[in-house]
Write a structure and sequence with these properties.
The structure holds 2 protein chains of 2 kinds. By secondary structure, chain A is mainly alpha-helical. Chain A has helices at residues 2-22, 26-50, 56-80. Helix content of chain B is 71%, strand content 3%. In chain B, strands 1-2 form a two-stranded parallel ribbon. The chains are: A mainly alpha, B mainly alpha.
């Protein structure tokens, strides 16, 4: 049963990768990579249960943290061309 | 494990898989960046929540339960935050929602590109 779940999640990740490749703007690609990271967390969890070693859940937690930080950093870099400075003084402010 | 709990667990996990698939399909087929964010929200809430709830029933009250709960709570808090930051970055990058008579505050610049690509 776990095999079917893993294959379905991999299929979903393939569909998300298509959007990451063809996505017209760079924000579409960032969104697709974010969703890909979330699906990877789920895949690691299910794989840990599939092999009977739930220690993989630690890896899933760390992967979720890194994926979140990566999404925030990349979107801030794309919006402001700058990761260091906190505030741009206009109508929209910072992220 | 009782059969009814096993059945409930697999039911939750496979409905989560179905929601993940629906979200990925929406991510492919919807016309706009912001509607694609809506489709990504399906994966981040219902897909992840249902699959991890199924794994909850599989494991029972152990340390694994606590780890799964940490993953679930973190994704529930982090994913809307990331989507919000991405939406702000997109509007700042002049990618606007593809709607007529929008109430979205428009950036002060001229030469806006509505719903189309910029980069």
């Amino acid at each position: 049963m776990y095999e079917i779940l893993i294959i379905g999640i991999l299929l979903t990740m393939g569909l998300v990768l298509i959007r990451a490749v063809i996505g017209p703007s760079v924000f579409d690609r960032i969104l697709a990579v974010n969703v890909f990271g979330t699906l990877t967390v789920i895949l690691i969890c299910v794989h840990g249960f599939f092999t009977g070693r739930p220690d993989f859940l630690d890896l899933a937690l760390v992967y979720a943290l890194i994926s979140f930080i990566g999404t925030i950093a990349v979107s801030k870099y794309v919006a402001f061309s700058d990761v260091k400075n906190p505030i741009r003084h206009d109508f929209f402010g910072d992220i | 494990m009782p059969v009814i709990l096993e059945f409930l667990s697999w039911l939750l996990m496979f409905s989560g898989l179905v929601f993940c698939f629906i979200g990925a399909l929406g991510l492919l087929k919807l016309p706009d960046l912001f509607s694609r964010m809506h489709a990504a929200g399906i994966i981040d809430t219902l897909g992840v929540g249902l699959i991890i709830s199924g794994l909850f029933i599989q494991t029972g009250f152990t340390l694994v339960f606590a780890k799964l709960l940490m993953v679930l709570v973190f994704i529930f808090f982090a994913s809307p935050t990331a989507t919000h930051a991405l939406a702000r970055a997109a509007i700042n990058g002049r990618v606007l929602p593809n709607v007529k008579n929008s109430d979205v505050p428009v950036p002060v610049d001229n030469n806006l590109i509505s719903g189309e690509t910029q980069n």
